[in-house]
Model the fold of this input.
Amino acid sequence: MSKNGKAGRFQRDTLRFPQKDFDMVKEGVISLVVAGVLIVGVAAIWKAPFRPAVTNQEIAKSQPVLVEQTTLGDLDGTGSIASYGPPYNNGFHGQAPQSTQSIFGFHPETWWGTPYAVNTAKDDVITPLSMLATASGNGSLKSALATYQSATFAQQQKWATNYANALNKAKVVNGNVVVPAGDYGPVAMMMNDELSFAKSGLLSGALDRESNPGTIYRYNIQNDLLFLQGAALHGIAQNIDMLGEQWGINHDEQAYPGPWWLTPYTFLYQIPPWSTSSAGDEMAAYSVGILFMLLVLLPWIPGLNKLPKVLPMHKLIWRDWYKRLDRENACEQCPLRAACTKEFKGAYTPDSDVSSLPCYQPITTPASAAL
Amino acid sequence: MNWTKSIRSTVSEKITWDNLLPSEQPIYVSSLVYSFGVFTLSSLVFCIASGVIMAAKGALWYQISPLGSFMRSIHFWSVQAFFFFLTMHLVGQFFMGSWREGRAITWVVGALSFAISVVEAFSGYLSRGDFFSQWNQVQSKDAFNGAGLDGFLNILNNGQVYGLHIAVLPLILIAFVGWHLVLVRSKGVVPPYKARTSKRKEGVSHE
Done:
């Protein structure tokens, strides 16, 4: 490419402009000190938000019926994770996945199969209760589990449906759930024992054990988090304005700033179709991705890449520079106007003859830098 | 072609002491806007320093001990300061059209650094170990899964999220920020939009 072509135009050296003294190290140190004083000072005064995580034990004690309803949903497949779909499962008992998001047939969620397999009936109920029965030598529970597992699916669903209806009329007596008499098979005992297990605090350990098979190092808390993710956590989140439709993640504990930089993303959840579509999360993720690509590719987007030139903000930012040009009356009055303009654009090197003219004050010589 | 010579000559041309530690700058650099970048970097230094101390003590320390909690507060406000100055820097650079005259890649690398910062901050929020982490972890799973990232990322696996937060994403972010700085320094700060001289009156106006 020629020197006068695109490459030449783009290689304008900022040293062609008048220079002034600059101490980068000093500026960096001052900035570090100022930022440090501000950050440490604010941290010392206001500390940082922290609301302890919610445990199964707490919910079991404060809302025992809710824990039994959650457990029952996991057992009979009516819970949202039971039938979620990839990456956790392929639905419940032959039922199609219920939470697979798809935009016009585009559903990357399903591309990877079920790498984080969850069978809520087995993982959240049968296995923890089997561990409890073994640990406590509880023969009745063992036999209840055997009865449930050997029953037909229709029978299991009948017991579960009866118990679900009964839970709507349940009373809490001394922290225990009491339901009217009915045909619940082994389900009533299973639910009550799971509640006791949760109250003891051991249910979390059983769930964490499943998410970290074959190791005592339990970094994965998937099943523990998923157990409460429905009504239990939604109820708490709603009280502190953290639901998605309440601008969710933008809100940290009250009076503390949240991750406000996610506002464009959170905004999408407030308006249709993102707020109403069953693929809202997928749509929001890709919408933000597209918006972000616009930001990245801004230098090449016609119109947008010229926008700052039209907007007046750059005049404010460079007001001193433009004032200087005004003060010097730049090139307007100059008999060598063309050469002067070229020099201002950085494309012209004044020669000694031109510089010696009385009407001409070069802006690129060291002497002018002191102006 | 000798790769060693090629790299050596490119580096010595692009990364000179004058570029890395300039003692002069163009006279048009005269605005508060120019300080947002360096304040963003300073905030990042405090993010990293407080984060390294917390990583050294382990994830429980900042949840249960007073000193750990104070360090977490410094980390929290460093992040708030970082995003505040980063946003101001981004907006300022937009108004200056700072991608002009061969600086498009500088803009792209800066914007990508912003995106990495957002993901890095989110993984930090999920590593806080409190209700905010718990709630946003179960909420965000639908977005991560729906976007198809479930093949790589189990957002409910705190071992993975914590590892991403304290090692993988910071290394990527630091690399991108370093790249951005080298580009900024090697190209110099973008010159002002040129003033347009007016023939309508004696003085000079610009737009």
